[in-house]
Amino acid sequence: MNTDDYLRINEIKNYLYCPRIPFYLLCMGMDRDTALARIGVEQEAIAKKRMKRRQHALHAVHDGTRHFDVPVLHHDLRLIGRVDEVVETEAGVYLVDYKDTDQNHGYWRVQMTAYRLCMEAARVTVLGCYIYTIPEQAYKPVKSTPKDEAKLVEIIGALHEIIASEFCPPPTPHIRKCHTCQYVRFCNDVH
Known about the structure:
The structure is a single chain. The chain has helices at residues 9-17, 20-26, 35-51, 58-61, 108-121, 146-165, and strands at 7-8, 65-74, 79-88, 93-99, 126-133, 138-141. By secondary structure, it is an alpha/beta fold. Strands 1, 2, 3, 4, 5 and 6 form a 6-stranded mixed sheet that branches.
């Protein structure tokens, strides 16, 4: 099945951080790789390597088998993504997303909602969702609500509108985010 026009779940996260980030990627084809982004990817890889050996990981709390970098998709929502860790138990699964920060920039619940809906679309029972914060080495439970599902659908619609219109959305109202953004030099109207 061709998933070329599916949105990556990462774009949901990026949109919530700043709507211009997915515009630059999806409309302008500018995928900016920065040192900060590479450090985040490296931190996640190191954490996953350590987690495979750890006895006090989530699988020890919820007895099960661990799977890393599990691909997921949802045909109706036209979403595709990859869950960092899935703990499979007899009753269902637990989803874990690794973060190289303990700062929730307002997207954790919507992102985990997207992963959960993808798994449920594949008829997999999701028992719980967690964010694993690498700096704290802690699991934080994430409970999504119908409001999060509605927000996800709204964001998907907004992203498709951005792609169709190729109109650059306004920047995030939180200008502090611009200081670490890989696209800061393209947003001359912010400073």
